[in-house]
Amino acid sequence: MSRETTEIDAQIKGRTSKGRAVLSWLLAASMTATSRRCALSTRQSLLLARQSVIATLEKKPMKKLYCFLIVVICNLSICTMSSFRSCERIMVPLCKDMPYNLTRLPNLMGDTDQNSVAQSLLDFEPLVNIKCSKNLRFFLCSVFTPMCTEAMDEPITSCRSVCQEVERSCAPLLSNFGLAWPALLNCSQFPAQNSEPPCMDPSPSKQKEDTLRKDSRTKLNLSKQTSAIDRMAPSSEFPSTAVAVAASISCGPQFVHIDRHEMQYHKCVLRCNQDWMFTEEQKNFAQVWMAIWASVCFLSTGFTVMTFLLDTSRFTYPKRPIVFIAICYCATSVGYLLRLLVGREAAGCQQLDSGQSVLVSHSLSNAVCVVTFILLYYFGLASAVWWLILTMTWYLAAGRKWSQEAIARLSSTFHIIAWVIPASLTVTLLVTHELEASELTSMCFVCLHSSSALFGFVVGPVAVFSAIGICFMVAGIVSMVRISREMRFRICDTDLQKLRKLMTKVCVFSLLYVVLTLIVVVCSVYEKFFDEEWLSSQFECRPQSFKDATTGVGLRHCNMSGMGSLSPPAVEIYMLKVFISLTVGIMSSMWIWSKKTLLMWHHFFCEKLFSNPVAKSGPAQYAQGSSSLHHPSQDRPGILNPEVSAKVQQLIKKKFSTKSITVHRFQRKIIVIREYNN
Question: How far separated are the first and last CA of the chain, in Å rounded?
Answer without folding.
Answer: 102
